[in-house]
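Key result, reporting period 2: structure in, sequence out.
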């Protein structure tokens, strides 16, 4: 599937300054191992130290493998820097990255494209919050999250109206824009997408977290969640999950890879939640598991992503 990466010099961008720094370091470590196994010259570069700019500019790299989650990595800023430096990089471009990490903008695009997603209210810092209006529009049970964070950072499931103000305050502690979404009960199913010219959906993966929802601990602590492939939903629901993942990938303008999170209700209705343009690549991460189920082992997955980036740069 992947072209040879032997001898290619790869800048593996990791760490950074976002709330997901530790996850990024773990992702980067595993990616470096996989790239080196394929014969690439993989060099770790921690973007928390601004000297990384000189290293990138002068390092003679063939390609950058972005392992940065959250702000200053997944949001289009690092992609823009690499565009300026003329270094090809894995994953989506500036606009798609910025749109996907902004959950409010993503929601606008999903709605405009007819992709089913839970109803929501968007809040901005400094505005008066109409708590009663939110409950009337979305119900008492809601999901509150910062618009521009990943890994469920700052996210709360609100069970009763009196919990809403604290949840919103918590989310505003991480961002100036907050999303309040109607809670949809069901099975959590995630779908990875790979490819450039003809992207394709990987097998559905059902997430069974030990906690109430797939929070930071569930994502990154071994044993705190189970992955079931294919998801235990109807064939029609599996097809719809994959359709929504591909449609969202295209609507946002993603490239190379993405991972869409969905919920399948008891009656088989599928709701699109959000899209991640730089999914985790740790031993407990979702995309590598889905790829493995499709017959793509981790070293091949990493080499494939590099070949996508190099191919896009030469086209």
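The corresponding designed sequence is given below.
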């Amino acid at each position: 599937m992947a072209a040879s990466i032997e001898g290619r010099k790869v800048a593996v961008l990791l760490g950074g300054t976002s709330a997901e720094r530790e996850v990024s370091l773990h992702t980067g470590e595993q990616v470096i191992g996989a790239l080196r196994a394929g014969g690439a010259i993989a060099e770790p570069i921690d973007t928390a130290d601004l000297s990384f700019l000189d290293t990138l500019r002068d390092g003679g790299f063939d390609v950058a493998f972005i392992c940065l989650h959250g702000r200053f990595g997944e949001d289009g800023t690092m992609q823009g820097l690499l565009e300026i430096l003329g270094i090809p990089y894995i994953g989506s471009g500036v606009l798609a990255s910025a749109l996907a990490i902004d959950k409010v903008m993503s929601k606008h695009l999903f709605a405009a494209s007819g992709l089913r997603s839970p109803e929501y209210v968007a809040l901005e810092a400094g505005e008066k919050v109409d708590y009663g209006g939110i409950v009337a529009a979305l119900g008492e049970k809601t999901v509150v999250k910062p618009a521009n964070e990943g890994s469920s950072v700052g996210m709360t499931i609100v069970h009763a109206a009196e919990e809403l103000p604290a949840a919103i305050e918590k989310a505003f502690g991480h961002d100036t824009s907050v999303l309040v979404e109607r809670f949809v009960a069901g099975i959590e199913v995630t779908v990875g997408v790979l490819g450039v010219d003809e992207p394709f959906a990987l097998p559905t993966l059902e997430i069974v977290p030990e906690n109430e929802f797939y929070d930071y601990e569930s994502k990154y602590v071994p044993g705190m969640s189970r992955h079931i492939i294919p998801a235990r939903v109807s064939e029609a629901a599996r097809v719809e999950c994959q359709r929504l993942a591909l449609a969202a990938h295209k609507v946002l303008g993603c490239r190379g890879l993405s991972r869409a999170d969905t919920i399948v209700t008891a009656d088989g209705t599928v709701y699109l939640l959000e899209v991640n343009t730089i999914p985790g690549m740790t031993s407990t991460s979702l995309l590598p598991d889905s790829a493995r189920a499709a017959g793509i082992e981790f070293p091949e997955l990493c080499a494939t992503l590099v070949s996508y980036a190099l191919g896009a740069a030469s086209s």
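The first helix runs from residue 21 to 37. The first strand starts at residue 9 and ends at 14. This case is discussed further under Risks and Mitigation.
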